[in-house]
Structure formats: C-alpha cells, structure tokens
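Why should sequence recovery work at all? Because a backbone constrains its sequence more than one might expect. Tight turns favour small or flexible residues, buried strands favour hydrophobic ones, and helices have their own preferences. The token representation captures these environments compactly. In the example below, the structure is given first.
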C-alpha cells in the first residue's frame, strides 16, 4: 500500500507514475480517498495572530493580536465532539496529545461551548476563556483534537 499526501497534489493536472516491484501486477492498483474525520490544532500564547494594520493601532484599542486557534471541518460536516483539549503545557501531537503538568480543567468545556455543532470556530487564548492563574510565568499552549461528522 502507498500513501500519497494530499499536500503533494495540485488542484488539477496531476500525473502519478508508479514503478511496480518485479512480479507486481499493475492491474491490481486501486485508489481510494481518505475522508477527514477530525481536526487538530496547537497554538502557544507567545505566537499571537495579528494583521499588519493592527501594528499601527494602540494595543489597548485592538484585540486582534490575541493568540487564536481556528478549527474547520470539511464541507458539509460539523464539530460533533472534542476528543482532547488542554490549555497549559500539553504534549504530543495530533492523535496522541496528553495533558502536561499545567492544565486548565475547564479547557474541554470552553472548546465545546465555542465549537460544538459548528463547521468552524475560533478560540482565543484570553483570560475570559482560560485561567491564567495556574502555572504563573509559564508560557501556555492550547492543544485541541476534535471529531467532524
């Protein structure tokens, strides 16, 4: 079995050349599309999202520079559940995230409130959404794995 990442494909005009091993049967080659059933994201509070125009405004006037996670499911699907959410010091990668030593216990409920039953959502790393009191002087991250259906 071969896996060709979607990122290698152009919108059209792709040519796939397969060199089969000796004795292989090229008539047995089958193609299948993998359906995305989930989304993952990870952002650190020290990597804020900003727009160039915001650099010319007073920091108190503009809240666009808050670190934000954006989740988006494939077309005609929505976020049906949150498999993992941790604001603090989560570790791992998509499919195997785990809580770190620092964790806001309300992380999953915040993400569910903002994202469940939506095709896409945005979660800002603000004091309104998450407790900044735990683990002072630690740069915190938000890691999310959600299911799309």
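From this structural description, the recovered sequence reads:
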């Amino acid at each position: 079995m071969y896996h060709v990442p979607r990122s290698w494909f152009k919108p059209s005009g792709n040519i796939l050349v397969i060199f089969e091993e000796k004795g292989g049967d090229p008539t047995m080659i089958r193609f299948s599309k993998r359906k995305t059933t989930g989304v993952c994201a990870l952002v650190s509070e020290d990597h804020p999202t900003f727009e160039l125009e915001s650099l010319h405004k007073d920091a108190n006037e503009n809240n666009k520079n808050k670190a934000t996670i954006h989740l988006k499911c494939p077309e005609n699907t929505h976020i049906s559940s949150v498999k993992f959410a941790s604001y603090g010091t989560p570790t791992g990668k998509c499919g195997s995230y785990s809580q770190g030593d620092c964790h806001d216990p309300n992380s999953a409920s915040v993400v569910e409130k903002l994202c469940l039953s939506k095709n896409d959502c945005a979660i800002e790393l603000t004091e309104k959404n998450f407790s900044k009191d735990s683990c002072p002087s630690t740069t915190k991250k938000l890691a999310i794995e959600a299911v799309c259906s």
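A few observations help interpret the result. The two ends are 26 Å apart (CA to CA).
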